[in-house]
Amino acid sequence: MRFLSTRARGGAAARSVSFRTALFEGLAPDGGLYMPETIERWPESDLVALPSRSVVETAVAALRPYVGDELPASKLYAVLDDALNFPIPLVEIEPGLFALELFHGPTLAFKDVGARVLARMLPALGAPDAANVLTVLVATSGDTGGAVGHACHGVPGVRVVILYPDRRISPTQEAQLTCFNGSPGANVRAYAVDGTFDDCQRLVKTAFADQCLRERAGLTSANSINIGRLIPQTTYYFHAAGLLAARGYERAYFSTPSGNFGNLTAGVMAQRAGAPIAGFVAATNVNDVVPSYLATGVFTPRPSIPTIANAMDCGNPSNFDRLLWLYGDSADAMRADISGSAHTDDEVRGAIRWMDEARGYLLDPHSAIAYLGIAGRERREGQERHDRRGPGSREDVRRRDRTARVFLATAHPAKFAEVVEPVIGRRLEPPAPLAAALAQPRTVFRIGATPAALAAVLDEP
Ligand SMILES: *Cc1c(COP(=O)(O)O)cnc(C)c1O
Fold this sequence. Notes:
alpha/beta; Rossmann fold; 6-stranded mixed sheet; 5-stranded parallel sheet; 14 strands; 15% strand; globular; binds pyridoxal-5'-phosphate
């Protein structure tokens, strides 16, 4: 498969690159984001077979069209089998409502899926120059850095530099991010930037725009600007569809808690490839630039506002360009598939409390936003039925009964214990990987929010 930059629209002479180049470059040289030239629809026989497929088998089917002949089948399988070594369960909360738990990987958040595949894909595709180490540069609002650091730790030929906003991430996230800082010679280092997440992201973009630095340091990106993160994430939309089909559902609405909108973009790509998805809810915290766009047709990036769902504190979502690309710049086309839903910290705490008390299910703040998104959608539909005075035709009712509602549970509640514990009034036991990270002494490296400070870090041997 060839990949094009989102900035290279329509031009007959647009430069296209291979899967490998798209992954190694991360960001296209023109500053755009790579997208596949086409999204191939799965053969019907593969869709029908979903209920009997493992996560790894589904991942192979999802990635194969994009990878093409750039990796032999056995190598693709090995990469995915090694990367996706944790379950992705679908938990029924009430009839027709499901949580898709994406947080059973080593850093307890969904980013493990894309990051672990990408980290193994890079060496499998072959480093650009065997003599040079590849530097994965990531900006993180908390979760990405941990996922990428863990995914790449010990992977030969790869070095990781993580930038996170100083004092604006949770203690747990900081423990997970900095856990390799204390070991000299480790290939993963995290730096606390004196600024916001947006500052971190800007620094990364500036470094990528500096062609000299980029080549010198062998820079690549593992943020969701790298299409190599998004393509693996299409897997779990198909996987969920298979699990739902086994329970008699024909399609589902997905509510995706969104920050940079990589997860939602992956969902739309899965839908285009044939996953039976009726529509999406773009659920956000008060950083609601995409819900506002859906309401008004105007996209207005803003500085991000800190919230308790901080992995979604994003005022200028980097994947919005990909959504525009997928919907041909049409707000109406996007609205036909995606509805927006934005939620305050108080609503999030309320949802965590209600879900714990009424359903005995624990939500982290991000998953709570996804739940609020799908619950809001359900309420709006109910209201519409009420206004029409009736449940609709028999076919409408049948369709509704065969349509599931799924919210993506993107982080383990214990990862955000400082938010969840006061709300539910009891302590949470950290799962083993988290307990280990928390027990380590903290080593923090601080840098200023300037390109020069970052260049100095990147030029270190
Ligand atoms: C990163 C993250 C999100 C947002 O995902 P995007 O792909 O950036 O929209 C949601 N929840 C959690 C827990 C995250 O870490």
